[in-house]
C-alpha cells in the first residue's frame, strides 16, 4: 500500500470540495476578520515556529488517555477509571479549540494540494472532537455505554486526522521553514553594483542559494529570496520603505534584518551581509541575525 493511499482515496470523494468551501466561509468570518495581532498569534509569529503542531499535542493526548481509561474500565469491569476518563475528555475538548483556531488560520494561507489535505485533516479531527463532545454529554446523562462507544469512534477519526496532519508537515511541508539558510560563509560575488537599480527587488544566487538584493540610497540590503512561509518569490513582492511583502500570502519582512513583521510566516528570512568590492556586490550569510 502506498503511503498516500488514504489521502488519495478520501480526496476522490465529492464532499471534499464542499468541505473546502465551508472552511472558506468560516475562515472569512473569523480568521480574516480578526486583527493582525490575533492572526500572528495563531500563526505562531511570537513563538518562532508554527503554533498549530504544538497545540494539537494536548487534545490528542487527552482523548487518547480517555479512550485507554475506558478500555481499562471495560476490561476490568470497574468504575474506578470513569472520573479520569471524563476529566481527560473535558481537557481535550477545551484545548482542541485553540488547535482548531490555529489550524484554520494556517489553512487559510495554504495552497493545493496541501489545502485539500488540510480540509480532510479538519474533517477528521473536527469529527473526532464532535464525537467526544457527544460522548461527554452522554456520560453526564448516565448513558455511559453509548458514551464510551462514541469515544472509540472519536479516537479512530482522530487517528486518521493525525495521519493526515503528518502528511501535511512531512509531505506537503506545511508549517516548516522554507527559507534557504545555508548561504556561503565567505563573501561571494553575485553581480555588478552598477546593474542593481535603486528601490527594485532583485534576485541573485550565491552558490545555489537565492538572495534578494535591494539598494536604497546606495546602501545594499540582502535577505533570503525564498519566503520562509511557503517559498514564495520575494523578488516579485511589493517593496514599501524597508518592508518587502510576499506576493503569495502576504507575509512582510524587514529587508535590513530579515525579521518577520506580519504573518502568516512564523519564521524570519535568512539575512546576508553585503558589500561592494571592485564594483562587484558580494554577500555572505549573517549568522548573527
Distance between the termini: 45 Å
Helix/strand order: HHHHHHHHEEEEEEEEEE
State the strand order across the main sheet.
1-10-9-4-3-2
Number of helices: 8
Helix percentage range: 40-55%
The helix-and-strand class reads alpha+beta
- Main pleated sheet: 6 strands, antiparallel
Mean pLDDT: 93
Secondary structure tally: strands: 10
Radius of gyration, in angstroms, nearest whole number? 24 Å
Multimeric status of the protein: single chain
**Coarse shape:** elongated
Approximately what portion of the residues adopt beta-strand conformation? 15-25%
Point out poorly predicted stretches.
Answer: none
Count of folded domains:
2
Can you walk me through this structure?
Helix content is 46%, strand content 17%. With 289 residues, the chain is an alpha+beta fold. The chain has two domains: 166 residues, no CATH class; 98 residues, Rieske [2Fe-2S] iron-sulphur domain (Rieske Iron-sulfur Protein, 3-layer Sandwich), CATH 2.102.10. A hairpin with a 6-residue loop joins strand 6 and strand 7. Helix 5 runs antiparallel to helix 8. The chain is elongated, with a radius of gyration of 24 Å. It starts with a helix and ends with a strand.
Quickly describe the structure.
This protein is an alpha+beta fold. The chain has 2 domains: 5-170, no CATH class; 188-285, Rieske [2Fe-2S] iron-sulphur domain (Rieske Iron-sulfur Protein, 3-layer Sandwich), CATH 2.102.10. It has helices spanning 5-11, 15-29, 36-43, 52-55, 57-76, 82-107, 114-140, 144-170; strands at residues 188-192, 202-206, 209-216, 219-224, 238-240, 243-245, 252-254, 260-262, 271-277, 280-285.
Amino acid at each position: 500500500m502506498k503511503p498516500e493511499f488514504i489521502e488519495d482515496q478520501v480526496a476522490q470523494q465529492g464532499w471534499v470540495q464542499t468541505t473546502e468551501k465551508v472552511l472558506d466561509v468560516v475562515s472569512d468570518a473569523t480568521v480574516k476578520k480578526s486583527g493582525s495581532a490575533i492572526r500572528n498569534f495563531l500563526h505562531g509569529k511570537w513563538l518562532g515556529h508554527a503554533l498549530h503542531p504544538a497545540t494539537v499535542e494536548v487534545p490528542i493526548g487527552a482523548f487518547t488517555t480517555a479512550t485507554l481509561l475506558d478500555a481499562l474500565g471495560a476490561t476490568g469491569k470497574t468504575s474506578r477509571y470513569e472520573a479520569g476518563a471524563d476529566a481527560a475528555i473535558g481537557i481535550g475538548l477545551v484545548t482542541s479549540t485553540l488547535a482548531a483556531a490555529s489550524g484554520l488560520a494556517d489553512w487559510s494561507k495554504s495552497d493545493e494540494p496541501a489545502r485539500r489535505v488540510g480540509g480532510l485533516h479538519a474533517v477528521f479531527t473536527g469529527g473526532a472532537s464532535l464525537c467526544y463532545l457527544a460522548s461527554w454529554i452522554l456520560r453526564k446523562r448516565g448513558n455511559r455505554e453509548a458514551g464510551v462507544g462514541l469515544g472509540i469512534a472519536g479516537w479512530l477519526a482522530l487517528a486518521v486526522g493525525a495521519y493526515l496532519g503528518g502528511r501535511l508537515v512531512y509531505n506537503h511541508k506545511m508549517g516548516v521553514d522554507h527559507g534557504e539558510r545555508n548561504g556561503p560563509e565567505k563573501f561571494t560575488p553575485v553581480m555588478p553594483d552598477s546593474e542593481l537599480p535603486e528601490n527594485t527587488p532583485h534576485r541573485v544566487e550565491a552558490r545555489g542559494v537565492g538572495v534578494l538584493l535591494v539598494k536604497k540610497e546606495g546602501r545594499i540590503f540582502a535577505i533570503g529570496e525564498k519566503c520562509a512561509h511557503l517559498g514564495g518569490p520575494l523578488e516579485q513582492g511589493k517593496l514599501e520603505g524597508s518592508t518587502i511583502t510576499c506576493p503569495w500570502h502576504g507575509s512582510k519582512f524587514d529587508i535590513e534584518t530579515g525579521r518577520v513583521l506580519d504573518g502568516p510566516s512564523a519564521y524570519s528570512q535568512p539575512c546576508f551581509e553585503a558589500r561592494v568590492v571592485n564594483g562587484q556586490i558580494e554577500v555572505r550569510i549573517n549568522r548573527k541575525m
